[in-house]
């Protein structure tokens, strides 16, 4: 592939010599603070998707108080068939990733007082430890626990009391379990809090009163999350915590209604902003969209530039770290070259703005649906080494 530098946005150049996909971008000036340096250290990461975040059935609560011997860890293989092993996480480290996101759904694993099943919490800790043993940063969250019909969380006023109780109890227990774990373990309060099924489920429509209500509820739930973790003591007093806006979308974080929670006075910018960006949408996520990404064309890169630029201006430049912990592009009939180019450009642009990125890997390679897999869970081999190399070349 040959691309003329003059065609490319700003000063970007891509060099594909000796399998290098290095993209040269002018790096933004970053605040010289511990928080921004910490975020930069997260670098390039990988999501253990469709695993501990999977759930089955209607999502009703398990009566673990009545069935203490019940093994509820079977959900780990409900959405993909492979149980997580130390070898897999070692392969993630060997591929060059420096951070591991561990999405976890909890509502199938609690009793009616939101006490977490001991077997489930033990399994979560076991996989966290796999990451710790490899020297990875590990991000632990509340994931698919956003449902109006299940007794977990739903960000509207009608469900706020229940939602606060759920968020508080989950993080009280998780923070207590991991109180001795240091800064390499990060907590992320919620995944993509939103009004599921609403006409504006994925957009921040400020003209809609229900969305404005949801934004306020999310602010309150983020505060409950921070307060619960900080009050658990130990390393939790200073642990880095990450908070999403509506749907964890860029607009959800960038809108005026979003605000970070209050933290302990001694903590200096130890709250991060969680954002997800499958951008540009028509290439990265939309099945009916284009299968072509060409970094020499502004039409391919402008959405990436705009989103990351706005996040830098509002947060990073002011000393608040941004954690972009879901990104990637789905396979569209073997469009590997475009996916590789997208991975190179997106990663380069994010790192130039001081924003770490984590690829969403759901273990899916074949069939219909969102095929985001890049590492084979059965063999621990890199199924798309080109994409991984393109990301790592931006370090």
Helix-strand sequence = EEHEHEHEHEHEHEHHEHEH
Sheet/helix structural class: alpha/beta
- Biggest sheet: strand arrangement: 3-4-5-6-7-8-9-10
Strands, total number:
10
What is the helix content? 25-40%
Main β-sheet, in a few words? 8 strands, parallel, barrel
Q: What count of helical segments does DSSP give?
A: 10
Question: What is the distance, rounded to the nearest whole angstrom, between the alpha carbons of the first and last residues?
Answer: 21 Å
Give the low-pLDDT segments.
1-8
Q: Using the alpha-carbon principal axes, give the shape.
A: globular
Mean pLDDT comes to 93
Rg, rounded, reads 20 Å
Q: Provide the β-strand percentage band.
A: 5-15%
Keywords:
single chain, 395 residues, alpha/beta, 8-stranded parallel β-barrel, two-stranded antiparallel sheet, 32% helix, 11% strand, disordered N terminus
Can you describe what's shown?
With 395 residues, the protein is of the alpha/beta class. Helix content is 32%, strand content 11%. It is built from 10 helices and 10 strands. β3 (44-48), α2 (86-94) and β4 form a beta-alpha-beta unit. α8 (298-314) runs parallel beside α9 (336-352). The two termini are 21 Å apart.
